[in-house]
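Entry type: protein chain
Record version: 2
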Amino acid sequence: MKYNKLFIVALVALLLDQLTKWIIIQQIPYGSYYPSDPNVVPVWDSIFYLVHIGNKGAAWGMFSDYSFIFLFLPPLALFGIFYFREALGLYLPIMQVIFGLFVGGIIGNYVDRIVHGHVIDFLDLHFPLTLPILGDRWPAFNIADSAICIGAGLYIYASFFLLEEPIQED
């Protein structure tokens, strides 16, 4: 298969995302969010907790009043990746890994929207130092969000350090 790395990475990201969300659904009641909640699981006290909340919007809950948009954007993004696969350089192994992370993350969160009506977030980080925009608490996230962010970071890195010349269509 021409894009086997993309499919493998996407499948692993999707399965890890859905498995961890399934475990959270089984173990932590929906709406458990604040460290004082007895259902929240402290992984690293005062720093890292497992919670169970829903996000109808995008990152940080943005556009949650327009959640219907998120039923159309993921398929559109996946179609764009497929349609522009040559221009995106998906024939390169590193780009297959990067876009595999994107695809797995997109599908993972999309499954949540279809099945649950919101994205399940469960990783809750608190920082000892206050951040100017966020305060001391990072918005809760999940494995799909992590895959997308790691893919974005790798894409930036690859763009600057791994790709010697612009990607050309064959």
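Comment: Residues 157 and 163 are 9 Å apart (CA to CA).
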